[in-house]
Amino acid sequence: MTSDLTRLLAREMAALVRAGETSSRALTEAHLAVAERQNLALNAWLMIDREGALSQADAADAILGEARRAGGAALEALHPLLGIPVGLKDLISVEGGQCTAGSRILAGYRAPYDAHIVERLRRVGAVLLGKTNMDEFAMGSSNEYSAYGPVSNPWDLDTVPGGSSGGSAAAVAAHHVPLALGTDTGGSIRQPAALCGIVGMKPTYGRVSRYGIVAFASSLDQIGPFARDARAAAALLHAIAGRDARDSTSAPVPVPDELLHLPESDDEAVAWLRGRRFGLPREYFVAGMDPDVERRIHESVAFLVDAGAHVEDVSLPHTDYGLAAYYIVAPAEASANLARYDGVRYGHSRRLEGGDFIADYLATRGEGFGAEVKRRIMLGTYALSAGYYDAFYLKAQKVRTLIKRDFDEIFASGIDALVAPTSPSVAFRFGEKTADPVAMYLADACTLPVNMAGLPGVSIPCGLSEGLPVGLQLIGSAWSELLLFRAARAFEGLTAGAAWRGLEPAALTKADHASGLTPAERAAALAAAR
Description:
about 40% helix, about 525 residues, Amidase signature (AS) enzymes, 19 helices, alpha/beta, eleven-stranded mixed sheet, 2 domains, 11 strands
C-alpha cells in the first residue's frame, strides 16, 4: 500500500481512518494540497473549499473517535464514505456556495439550500472538497464550453477530458479526490469516465433525486458517481440514491445494501460471470470508430468469454435514430428550462438605459449565455414552435419509445447486460471538433440511447490506445445498478494483472511543473513541456 494517501482507493482510505492509522483531516489536507497545486494546469476545479472541507473532516474524525471508543459494532455501523473527500459538479446546490453551472449568467449566485444529494452526503459524513468545472449548463462533450475555461485531461494536457462532467472526471483521475459526482444527460458521466480512465455510472432515471440540480433536459438528466474502482462508485451511489418527495420523478425503489458489499476477492468477483449472458449490439460500432478502440472492446469481450460468460451478437435497430431524436428532445427541454434566466430573479443582469424590459432580457441572455447554449436554445425553441411541434418534438418522443422498446425486448430475452464501447474515440485534442458541432455531437453516439430509454449504464477502463484510456460500457435493464457493478467488479478482477492497470495519468508531472506560476508563465511552461 502506497504511503501517498491520495493514491489509495476509497476503501483503503476508509480502512485507515477507521483503524485510526490516519485521520480524515490528514486525508483531506493531502487531497487539498494536490488539487490546489495542479489546478492551474488542469482547471478541473472552479472552487476549492479548504476551510469548509477541513471543518467537515474534523467533524468526521470526532465521529470516528467516538465509534472507536464504543467498539467494533459502532465502527461497522458507519458508512464507508465517512471522512472521505468528494468533489461536486458545479451545478449541484450547496447552501451558501456558488453554483455557476459553468455559465457567466450564474456568476455571483449563491445557492439558498442544499441539493438532496448534498444532504445525503452530509448525512454519511463525506467531506465536500469543492465544485468542479463543467461544460456550460452541461451542454457539451469535451468541457471546452465552460465559461471559465476548458479542463485538461490528466493523461495529455493537450486533449479534452470529455464532457460535460469533465472537471469531476479529471479531478478523480488526477487523484485530487477519490470520488466525485456528475450528471449524465446524453453520456456526460460515462464519456468523460472513459476518456479519463476511471469508472463512471449513469443510474436509472429516477434512482437519484434531481432536487437542487441545475436542469438541462429534465427527462434525461441523472446524477451519478465517478471513482477509480467499481466498489467505490457503488458505495457513492448507495449514499445518494433513494426516494425524495421533493422530486416527483424520484422513484420509490429500494436501494440495495449489497452495493456496499461487492466482492473483495478478484476470484470471487470473476466467478460471478460464469453463465451470465451479455449482448454485443452491432449498432454501437459506429462508422468512423477508432480501430484501436474497437480492438480494445473486442479484447474485453474475449476476457468475459474466457471467464465463462456468454456473449451474443444482438441488434438495437432504432439506435441509428437516437442521435437525431436526442438533439430534438434535449434542446427542446433546455429551451424551456433556461427561459427562467431573465436577469430579474438571480444571476447576471444587464440593465440598459430606457427601462425596456425586453431589451434588458435580451442583453442579459446575450451576454450571459455562451455560443453552445444559445445554439441549443434556438434549436429547442424552433422544435417547440407552432407548426413544428408535431413534426419534430412529438415524432422524436415516438422514436424514443421505439428505442426503449428495443432495449426492453433484448432484456426480456434473458440478456443480463449489454457490452459496448463508451466512446468511439479516445480523448481528442482541443479545438478538433469545436468548429463542427455535429462532429462533437457524434462523440455521444454510444451513450445517449441509454438516456433516451432511462436505463443505467457504467463505463469502466479497459486498456489504452496510443497511451490514452479506452472505456468499456455496460448497459442494464431498469434498476440493475447492482448487477452492472458486479459485472464491472468482475472485469476489474479479470484485468487485475494488466500492465495498464498500474499506469498513472501521463501528464501529472507536467501539471505539477505548472504549479505556482502565473497564467502567462504557465502557458509558456506547458508549451515548452508539450
